[in-house]
Amino acid sequence: MDNPIMVGPTDSYPLPCERILPDWPCVTERYFEPRFYAPKLTKRVPIECHIGHQCVLFHSNRIGVVTLAHNHPLLTNDSPVEKLDFQVKDNTNRLDNKVSGKWKKGGQRVDQNSQLCIATCKDGTSYAIFACMRGTLIEINEKLFTDPNILRQKPWSEGYIAIIFPLVKSFKTEKESLMSWTDYKKFLDESEPKNNEITESDS
User: Fold this and answer.
1) Residue 138 to residues 30, 158, 176: CA-CA distances in angstroms?
2) Which DSSP letter does residue 79 get?
3) Integer Cα distance of 176 and 136 in angstroms
């Protein structure tokens, strides 16, 4: 089989992806709608942490796959990821999340600004990574435990961060609370934050 071909981002689809054939869309392109989130620095974020824009890939079955935006500093900087810390509070570790049954009961509840983990790079820089939406945490990607740098290498496939299940009644609301690719391009053109980071603080 031929080696995969990297395509994108394009005007119609914002994320680079691996295609087997140049004109044949990859799985992510065919089945997931990307939406974007630009978090703000708040008191909930550790003072030593930076932030960057993120992306949620929405599937038709109503799950949201939390990833990084293509311009997140973790992807644009050269320093590899050395550690992911899922102990986001003294009493909250995302790795302790457990769900059961068809409706995934028992999972941790999250909102847009809930931290999923803190990624620390080899150069010592740390980034807070957020849930980006309200819902129930279904899973943290287990591949990140043994290979945290897959977050940089394959962020929109094997290196996804987490899967979140919004309440059925609020799926549309949660999706529309995030920016479409068209709106996100406009947002970037108007704001042009340095290194794609937001530096505002909550009052």
Assistant:
1) 23, 16, 21
2) P
3) 18
d(CA 149, CA 84): 9
> Is 11 within the bounds of a domain?
no
If one counts the domains in the chain, the total is: 1
Q: Note the pTM of the prediction, 2 decimals.
A: 0.82
- CA 8 to CA 193: how far, in whole Å? 22
- Of 10-14, 31-35, 71-75, 178-182, which gets the smallest average pLDDT? 10-14
Within a domain: 199: no
Residue 162's domain is classified under what CATH number? 2.40.50.100
Question: pLDDT tens digits, residue range 132-163?
Answer: 999 999 999 999 999 999 999 888 888 999 99
Q: Can you read off the two tokens belonging to residue 115?
A: 């931290």
